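question for whoever is on the cluster today: can someone run the full assembly for these? two chains, 691 residues total. i dont have access anymore since they changed the login thing
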Amino acid sequence: MIVGDNPIKAYGLLIGSALSYPVGIGYTLFYTTPLIFTGLAVAVAFRCGLLNIGAEGQLYVAAFAATWIGISAAKLPMILLVPIACIFAVLGGAFWGAIPGVLKARFGSHEVINTIMLNFIAISILGYFTQYHYKTPGDPIMQTAPIGANAHIPRLGQFIPGMPEFIPLNFAFILALLACVFVYVFLWKTKFGYEIRATGLNPTAAEYGGIAPRKQIIVAMALSGALAGMVGIHEVLGYRYVYYDNFSANVGFTGIAVALLGRNHPVGVLFAALFFGMLERGGIPVDAFTEKVSKDIVDILKALVILFVAGEAMFQMLFSKLGVMKEQ
Amino acid sequence: MSDFITLLPILFFTTLRLTTPLLLAALGGLFSERAGVINIALEGLMLSGAFTSAVVTWKTGNPWIGVLCGIGAGVAVAWVYAIFTIKFKADQVVSGTAINILMIGLPGFLSGALFLSSGSTPSIPEQAQMPYFPIIFAFVMVPVTWYVLYKTPFGLRLRAVGENPAAADAAGVSVYRIRYTGVMISGALAAVGGAYLSIGQASLFTRNMTAGRGFIALAALIFGKWRPVQTMLACLFFGFTEALTIQVQGIQFIRWKLFTAILIIIVAVIALFVIQLGKERETSNEKLPLWITATSGFITFLLAAYITKRILGVVREYWFAETGIPIQFIQIIPYVLTIVVLAGFIGASRAPKALGQPYQKER
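^ ran it for u. tokens below:
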């Protein structure tokens, strides 16, 4: 653009590398997986009228819970350990998500501030545990000891022909697709989901209709945290095999963009996550092969998407003005 | 206690230094939130000021021009935020988050283009830094803010627009114009706070260098109940805990006595809060004599301090018998405190009534 590199080349790199088979697509789907989880997490909370900015903290707690069980129960057979570790991740996230839910329901304190504070608290406390209790002695990097091999979930490269095994795309991607289906069924086909949506649309009316908004708020936040927590399954059990301090590259915040762009609907979230996953993957070669365009362009694009989706009224104004001009 | 006393003067100046960016951002947030616009974007506004002032100061060698340009950038970004939230009625928290993400990416992108390094800008020489002015400016801004807010027509309109925009509109106040002004003032102040980080405390801009200070400032604003002096006290308190973590970083573990002292200070802060809350409740009924309030406050404080000490003793015996208290436990104090205060002491009613609601002028 204005900075002196060929824009077509930069965008070409961005999109081309994200869609090449099999490496590009593999990595794109790998980056998509956590965004599906956090996107769904934000969407579920949104449907209940809550903004969950705390997906970041929830996924850290979940990742650490999974790591903890992966280290301390490393001797269990794989068939037991993997599901247990997954359940711990989900429960960890649900627990951390339920805290702002309870605070909102019980004291009426705003979930946005509470989730931001809980993000900082999670990072600090988990940093403490990593540093003093679960680190391999002498390791200069802030990460825990590796989890047992029985807690690893398989990479998809083992099953899909032509997909090299070094690509960290793993089983969590399938789980993410299942989570989309689950959220759809839960929100639109069950009584619970109906009550959550009713609370989000109009808490007062819901209460008159016999729904307890306080309970819905707690359930929605716990579910939101559980979904964010599944990022822990993807990152720890499927990719890093350790808890790495500060591993998430703002996946929780990107989840807000994903949910917004996906209109808080599971199908929309899936495609929005794919779009952002493409950007994440495409940003790497842009950084490496152009002189001046850095991968920060991905953050900028993300921010612009959020802004323009949030400010959709702008387009309505624009169109109505155009309409007026035509009439004249 | 001796190590605590030797630390005290250093701690005092470090506290002032670390409070400055928080205070500027929080006062900025005050102008915007009192007008009814939530300002989660403080973080991004600070970053825009930090980046611009670092680059301009490096280019010109003059920190005053740098700060002015930083303010310009902050106002410009705040203007964009205002257009989206006020004119297009976008969700304020969501677009604030977008501004924050944008300001993580944009400085990196620009500095990558200008200096071929997306991580940081070139370092500016020491004589072009501005280590003291922003500190003074920040603390002078507290009475200025108070005066503007409570003693000028503009302040009255600002508060009216934040509490009841429809009534203000009916009284002939332009809701949109006041809100735009409030948000842009918040951009200017937050930008000075950011500039202090890049050309006051450091000599260059690094990626995401505010590291969550905008959010802490927001917490301080809520903690201070959207009032200038209380907000300053909250900022000082947060600055103090941050100063502690920095001062004892080399030690890694804090001595028990020091930790107890800190906790007692915190208890004192909470006790003060309770007393003040009691005072405000009484305004509706008959007023209690001052000595009763004071004595009850003092007894509350003593009781709380005693209980804190006993609980600490138990915790110490069970978990940290051999070591001291890890630094992370000091770090989380402001965050935990914010949650506790939010849940216990501040009802939703204290926030400006129209906070977060876009205003639609009737046609």
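summary bc i know u wont read the tokens: Chain A touches chain B through 53 residues (CB under 8 Å). The two ends of chain A are 37 Å apart (CA to CA).
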